[in-house]
Amino acid sequence: MSESPSAGMVSEPAPNELRDPFVRKELTRATVWLGTAGAIALVVLLVHPLLIIFGGLVFASMLDGGVRLLGRVLPIGRSWRLLIVVLLTVAFLVGLVWLTGVQVTAQFAQLQQTLITQATRTVSWATAKGIMPKQVDINGMMQQVLGSFGQLTSYLGIAFGALASLVMVLVIGLFVAIEPRLYGRGVEWMIPTDMRPRFAGTITEMAKTMRRLLAGRLFGMALEGVMTGVALAIAGVPMALVLGILTGLLAFIPNLGAIVSGILMVAVGFSAGMNTGLYAIGIYVFIQALDGYVIIPMVAKKTVDLPPALTLSSQILAGTLFGLLGLTLADPMTAMIKVALERSSEAEEQADAA
């Protein structure tokens, strides 16, 4: 007895059943796209915590670099070397504040008054030239701003949030620096077994690149700060000490730090007279040219090979997307991405050769 046509149709899967290979394929593809979109949305929502964690890793690399450098002269355990590095860092900061605290505090107060005076002069000049429609009272504006409770509360909230983020960065960096292999093995555990050796090599190369990059950055900051302070003191620019300290600290922030330090330097210079202001401009231009054409290329050649255009583009993108914290961490992020892409390219070349 022959089977009915309907019996054969029932045995085949319907187009909307999961047994259908086409439906399974499309469902898998949709799941991948939805998962990718969800991961991107999650990264966008958690971008600030992720940047704090990355900042902690950057600080851990600084400590690790100091520990390794100290290990060349002191053959003792890593924990003791890390303790020495932390204590030396704290002692340096405390000593700097103790020795120059009174002078720096007085100079910061003088700097604030100088900036107000220079801003008032600038506004008066602009009003006299017809650039601005009326005279603006800078002191009144600042008092009005500072007298607003709502704005003051907002500023305090921002300052408290920045301080909390800094504390978290320091704590994360210290814990990672104490046991770096512990956290490295933890991340490797989430990677498939066959990819763990390659991943471990990539992490090792990233850590090495990070240490070199930060060592060059710290060297450049110290050199720029010392040269600025000494040159301003020789030229007779007021507040040379605090301007040198600010220039060195702001040098950690790419591009923006140099602009801010230059504005402060020139404003203070012109507060002491026309010649002193011109000296300040000349010192700023000379140090920035020396830093841009001699120090940075020399340090980059010895540390990390990052093209200037790529570095500047990454700083613009990171600053626009993630703000000041993103701008500060733009160079380390670019260096890490560069290492990951190079390692991936090397793995593909080895696979093709095999």
Task: Explain how this protein is built.
With 354 residues, the chain is mostly helical. It has 13 helices and no strands. It starts with a helix and ends with a helix. About 2% of the residues have low confidence.
Question: What is the topological layout?
Answer:
Layout: H1 5-11, H2 21-45, H3 47-71, H4 78-128, H5 138-147, H6 149-178, H7 180-189, H8 196-235, H9 240-250, H10 256-271, H11 274-302, H12 308-328, H13 330-353
**Total beta-strand segments:** 0
Helix proportion: over 70%
Outline the biggest β-sheet. Answer: none
What is the CA–CA distance across the termini?
60 Å
The ordered string of helix (H) and strand (E) elements is HHHHHHHHHHHHH
Any idea what the shape is?
A: globular
The Rg value, from CA coordinates, equals 28 Å
Structural class: mainly alpha
Strand content: under 5%
Gist?
Helices cover 84% and strands 0% of the residues. It has helices at residues 5-11, 21-45, 47-71, 78-128, 138-147, 149-178, 180-189, 196-235, 240-250, 256-271, 274-302, 308-328, 330-353.
Task: Using brief descriptors, characterize the structure shown.
354 residues; mainly alpha; globular
